[in-house]
Write the structure tokens for this entry.
Amino acid sequence: MFDTDLINRFQQLETPFYYYDMGLLRQTLEACKNASDRYGFHVHYAMKANFNPKVLNAIQSYGFGADCVSGNEVKAAIAHGFDKGKVVFAGVGKSDKEINAALDADIFCFNVESVQELIIINDLANAKNKKANVAIRINPNVDARTHHFITTGLDENKFGINGWQLNDVAETLRKCANLQFVGIHFHIGSQITDLEVYKSLCIRINEMQDWFEDHGFQVKVLNTGGGLGVDYHYPDTNTIADFEGYFKVFRDFLNVKPGQEVHFELGRAMVAQCSALVSRVLYVKNGQKKNFLVLDAGMTELIRPMLYQAYQKIENLSRKPASPQVGKSESEDSGHRTQDSKFKYDVVGPICESTDCFQKDVELPESFRGDLFAIRTAGAYGEVMASGYNLRDKVQSVYSE
Ligand SMILES: *Cc1c(COP(=O)(O)O)cnc(C)c1O
């Protein structure tokens, strides 16, 4: 991702900033588009992963729909040119104001997470003399086998409607004249790398659509959610997520009936690898037990490592080996440049919290004040989660073009 020219360009810039490789973003989007088009699948981009305007414009230009989780995301999607007929709105706590905004915007569908929400959307639609399309978000109780902090599809999670409530859902749908049932929705978690998990999800979806059809509802849309993971350990080897493998699981295991549409909501897999957080070393603190590298970026710029115990690869850009080792793949040297791996550092930020640590005991070449660092795979749930805690400056973005 970083050649000498780019690193020289970074030298001139104030840090920290998010660097976006727009070429890589387009390559990723193209791969996703080609893989989903092959089976006629519809992809909605999960906007919460990254709503940087340039990123949104690029994604919109491929014709993807938008998956929103707030009224403001609905508005932003439409303002950035996403087709309102391809906007879906999920979330366990949609406020009346947000529901009204989405009704006014004539979005494609609400993904509804409780019986009470169905009744509220019906009432608000009735007041506007509108009919709202709804899909029922079902909690399939499928274990996503990802970190428990980002698992959403188990009975113990707050999301979706559990199987034992479905009779109540059916009864409510029959009573609500301002709702149009369009289908069923699922989202079991994030950073899913074991594709077998999606096979289990398909089996649950097949059962659920049969249940609805047996109860007299026509299921037009099967929305499988998102969650496809990326490789945080080897971003240069596995640069583009396995879209082919992912969509093929659904092609193979989902029971798609004539006239049905299959929808997806991908966030992370579309944007994670195209960005890195670039930061400088402010101070090197050598201690008796630990050596610390204090960066000028912290949890206020990138909180995933602190919030989810997430791993993100950390590189010293200023001390990359002069020539890459020819014939040796990234995975063979286990992500580290072993020839200089003489030092272990805790890489921390400047924020007044002990949890403000990107990673402990990182093997790195000896590092010095002023060295440029990159924290890789930061395009998803990075810039969007930045905060003003400690009255920090708003984090800047730099683009490859
Ligand atoms: C966050 C979210 C997604 C996207 O998840 P990724 O792991 O980024 O693919 C999809 N659907 C819903 C309902 C979400 O909340």
Q: What stands out?
A: The longest helix spans residues 196-214. The domain at 22-272 is CATH 3.20.20.10 (TIM Barrel).
